[in-house]
Structures are given as structure tokens and as C-alpha cells.
Amino acid sequence: MARRTSTSVGTAGVAVITVLAVLLTAVGLMWPLLAGLVDTSQDAGPDPVSITEYAADFTVDEDGRLTATEEITAEFPPGRHGIFRFWDLRDPSDSNVRLVPEDIEVELDDGPVPTDLMWQVGRRYRVAKIGDPDSFVSPGSHTYRITYAIDGALGSASAGGGLLGTGSWSTDAPGSAFYWNVVPGGWAMDIANVRISVNLPGSTQDVLCAAGSVDSGLDCTVRGSGEQFEVRAGPLSPYTPVTVRAPLNLGTPDRVALPWPSFMDGMLGPSLWWALVFVVLSLVGLLVGIRWARSAHESSPGGLSCTRRPRVSAPCRPTTSPASACRAPRSSRRCCTPRSGSSSGSPSTGPGAGRSKASWSRRSGSRSTRSPGMWERDSG
Fold first, then answer.
1. What residue ranges define each of the domains in the chain, with the CATH number in brackets?
2. What is the pLDDT of residue 48?
3. pTM value?
4. In this structure, are residues 309 and 368 in contact, taking their beta carbons and an 8 Å threshold?
């Protein structure tokens, strides 16, 4: 009875460990996914630094590659190290597209400045932490110059059609569209004035512009048409984007896209190769876990339960019987008994038929009638 209780406790322990291992693995795999669902870009609150002039130049070529130069003039109070620049990789018109900034360079007052690039909210935001953590920016006006490039700036003709409206231009028409936050919504400062120049690879008409939401009532105007136009807006409160939509009579170039939405990048990675490695490693871990769990519950061969007997002074020797498959060495002092309900090693007919279970245990004292499959004490 004590041995059965010990075996049950051991099996229960293996089951508990297996469940805990599965839960910990699931948490480890799903944590980046859960983190990608939580937007923390606006958790810090408004920044005491204010932007007095936000000027930028965006040039898009026929392949959809955008080259940007931003000049940001900011007024600093005492005790500030620098600013943050956020790039949102998610395309609001296509959740599978990734708008990844490249070749990021930053200057402060026409000179170099320490810049640390990082990811936030899984891999949704690319963030540039601009400034020296060991020194403060002197109070007053300073100008940052940020340059970068992004592939995939031209979307399909329907991009943004349901968000900014279409004017007299139909979203069912062939072509493409430049649908872009020319002022991103990640700026935590007040912005007094916005001046954006946009250069496109083809002529455009009916350009639309919105500061914040379409019905926000904030001023946003477009000047010019054709291949080049200018956007003016401001003042803007923190986290207020300025969005432009311009239709083009050009085909949509290839874009960087993945088969899963952007919030899963923290778990599956930024490319198909990363995802394949993740899947292969997960399958290997699953197979190893299943194999380990099965091996922990394997039964002894032949339905026999081999248990260690107390050490005795007289040697033990096996008798010729069907149970001799349990080949225990002399030094182990093992006694093999058939498990309850097992037919192996316990024939239903023949000389061993009808013997009670008691005849399969070790006899004590003098030599008794030998039973098949038992280890007997040698009294001589």
C-alpha cells in the first residue's frame, strides 16, 4: 500500500511539473504578443519641451521609397536631456505592411548628438532617444535635423479613402495613393507651427489634409498641386498627427509585407525566416516534452513489477520460469511479481494455473514449495 501511494505521488508530481512547464512556455511565447497589444506611446504624458517650428521635406520616388528631412526647432526649459522621435511601423490602410525607417541620422544645432535606437510596444514603434544622458540641453531654442528613408510609402488607390474621404476622386480607380502622417502622432510636445513640403513622382489632384481627426476643426491647408505641394497646420496639442492623402495615376509598387499583423512581430519576428525558426524550435520543444512525459509513465516490460527487496544474508538465485525475463543481478536482491490484471508471466493454464497471488511473494523461513517466477532464498 505504501509503495502504491509513493507511485501515485510520483506520477502526480510528474503531471504537475509537466503542466507548469507548458504554462511557463506559453507565457514566455505569448508575452511579446500581449505586449504588442498594449500601446504605451502616450503613457509618459506631455513633454515640457515645446516645438516652435516643425519643418519637413518628403520626397517619394516611383518605387515608393520616401526620403525625409525634418528640422525641428524646440524651446527647452532647464533640466532636459533631449527629445524622442517615434516612427509607427503600422500602415493604417494595410496591417500586413511594415514601414521601417532606415539610415536614421540626427544632428543638434548642426553638430552630432548621441542617439539610441530602440523598439517599443513589441516591434510596432521604432524610437530614437536623442540626447546625452549625462548632460542637459542648455535652456533656450535648439534645432534638431533628422534624416531617414522608408520603403513602401505609396499604397493602393483605396488607402485612406474611408478615413479622410475621397473628394471627387474615386477609390475604385486604378493607381496608387500617398497616405501619410507628415506629422506623426507620437510627439508629446505642443507644436506651434507646421510647414511640410511634399514631392511626388507624378501629378496629383484633390489632395486632402487633416490635423487630428477629420472633424477636429483644427486648421490644415494645402497649397499647390501637381507633383509638389505644401501643407500648413498649427497650433497642435501633444499627440496630434497631421495626415495627408494624395492620389496618383501610378501603379502601386511592391511593399514590405508579412503574412501576420504588426502586433505579432514581437513574437514571430520581423521576417519570414524568423517566423520559420520560431515554429521549428516550438515543434522541437513540443516533441521533446511529449517524449519526456511518455517516458515518465512507461511500464516495465512484460507487465512485471520489479521491486527491490531488503538485503538478506543468503544469496538469491532465479528459478526457471516464464518470469525469468526480469533479469535482475544477484546483488540487486530483486523479486518480480506480476502486476494486477497482467497476463504476462502468469499463465492461465498449465502448472502455474490457479496459484494465488501470495505464492508470488518471497517466502520467509525454511524452504517452501517453489513458485514460478520468484527469487527464492537458498537455505543451503
1. 2-36+276-295 (no CATH), 50-257 (2.60.40), 302-345+370-380 (no CATH)
2. 94
3. 0.63
4. no
